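Need tokens for this chain, all 235 residues.
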Amino acid sequence: MDDEQRGPVGAGSAILHLRCPVDVDPVIYGLLHGLVTDVTPVVQTVPPSVLVADVSGSIRFFDRDPAELGLMIRARAMALYGLPVAIGVGPTWSVAAMASRDAARSGLIAVGPAPEQVAAFLHHRPVGELYGIGRAQEQRLVQFGVHTIGLLAQLPEATVQRVLGGRAGRQLREVARGIDRRAVVPTELPHSTAAHHRFPLDTLSPRRSAPRCSRWRSSSATGCGPASRRPGRSR
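Here are the structure tokens for all 235 residues:
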């Protein structure tokens, strides 16, 4: 059975894509990394403001679904550090990353693993919102009348490769179909940030051991800061 029949590659995974404010303090970023690794050891850093975590192995241990784990992490980050984190939950890295862009106001958006759930999330969107697409690639697709992600997903692979090039065309078409072959690879923090995380003023409580994020609103555990600073497409 091929990928198109089976559904999204990575659909057995549960990925959290966490976006901090783009100007997040490196110390706070390190503390968030530690908070997430308390839930799962499979955490990949994407400095300066993104973390990606695979919580597939944590669901049974915590007896919570991936969205509930994301809400737990977000509530703790807000309570301890005043950090509003936008979290996307999905079966693959790219789906979760797109969901986290949408979560800038609501705090968390979860996309189910079933192929029809992934398609419902992706296919109505403008092709320029596809994870990993470049401006030139978007413009070329639009010139050929491919305005939505769903239209890109329906095109034959050979057609997309002729328009965008072999490897790039194949990869973008796969992402449009909810296929993402990347795994989350645990990575360490940059050395300077790791040092701050390892020694966060032990004599103080967590709330006082790091500066709060004063530039963003922190009215509740589910609210998030303004969406005017849109993160880049490829994180």
